[in-house]
């Protein structure tokens, strides 16, 4: 590989030789000698350029080495940044999965609460219609879906029901319910017209 100074030396030497030879040679031959030297130097420079050697090669090599160092530094920094970003993405994906699980739990709770609300609203509407019918038509007996079931001995008749002990499913204070007294009767609420 030739340095810039080495490539410039043959050109200077050939120019000095041309001027020295041109002084000792007659003017007709000097013109031809100058043309021959110019053709030879151009041929030599083109041959060296074909081989990859040219006057600014050393400067280009230095610039390429500098650029290579800069690219290496940038590559190391980008690799470090990619590692940090990959770790951050993993943490964020875990956080998203946790939030998704919480959201699914909230959705399940919402649907359960919504179903419960629909059931309560339906029972409220049913009771409201019964109350409205009771106000319009007088007292009537309704069965409450929330009332306790009659004791098993209630179906044997009123004569035997009086001997049975009173059952308290909701503690010591039981709200008395009205029974028809007929066999198989169930507890019923009575709404009187106000």
Instruction: Indicate the structural class.
Output: mainly alpha
Helices, by number, come to 4
Q: Could you give the order of the helices and strands?
A: HHHEHE
Low-confidence stretches: 1-7, 170-194
Shape: rod-shaped
Separation, N- and C-terminal Cα atoms: 118 Å
Q: How much strand?
A: under 5%
* Helical amount: 55-70%
Would you tell me the overall average pLDDT?
A: 74
* Strand order in the sheet with the most strands: 1-2
The major β-sheet equals: 2 strands, antiparallel
Structure notes:
It is a single chain. The chain has a two-stranded antiparallel ribbon. It has a domain at 1-56. Helix content is 67%, strand content 3%. By secondary structure, the chain is mainly α. It contains four helices and two strands. It has helices spanning 4-24, 27-50, 57-137, 158-161, and strands at residues 140-142, 189-191. The radius of gyration is 55 Å and the shape is rod-shaped.
Short account of what is shown:
With 194 residues, the chain is mainly α. It has helices spanning 4-24, 27-50, 57-137, 158-161, and strands at 140-142, 189-191. The longest helix has 81 residues, at 57-137.
Write the layout of secondary structure elements.
Blueprint: H1 4-24, H2 27-50, H3 57-137, E1 140-142, H4 158-161, E2 189-191
Antiparallel strand pairs: 1-2
Helix pairs in contact: 1-2
Descriptive tags:
194 residues, mainly alpha, two-stranded antiparallel sheet, disordered N terminus
């Amino acid at each position: 590989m030739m340095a810039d100074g080495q490539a410039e030396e043959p050109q200077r030497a050939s120019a000095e030789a041309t001027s020295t030879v041109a002084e000792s040679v007659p003017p007709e031959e000097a013109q031809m000698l100058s043309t021959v030297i110019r053709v030879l130097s151009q041929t030599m420079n083109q041959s060296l350029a074909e081989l990859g050697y040219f006057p600014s090669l050393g400067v280009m090599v230095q610039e390429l080495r500098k650029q290579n160092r800069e690219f290496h530094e940038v590559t190391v920094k980008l690799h470090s940044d990619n590692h940090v970003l990959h770790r951050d993405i993993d943490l964020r994906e875990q956080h998203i999965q946790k939030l998704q699980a919480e959201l699914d739990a909230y959705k399940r709770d919402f649907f359960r609460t919504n179903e419960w609300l629909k059931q309560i609203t339906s029972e409220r509407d049913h009771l409201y219609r019964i109350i409205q019918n009771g106000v319009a038509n007088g007292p009537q007996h309704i069965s409450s879906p929330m009332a306790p079931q009659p004791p098993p001995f209630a179906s044997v008749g009123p004569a035997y029901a009086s001997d049975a002990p009173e059952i308290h499913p909701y503690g010591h204070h039981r709200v008395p319910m009205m029974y028809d007294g007929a066999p198989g009767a169930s507890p019923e609420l009575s709404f009187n017209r106000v």
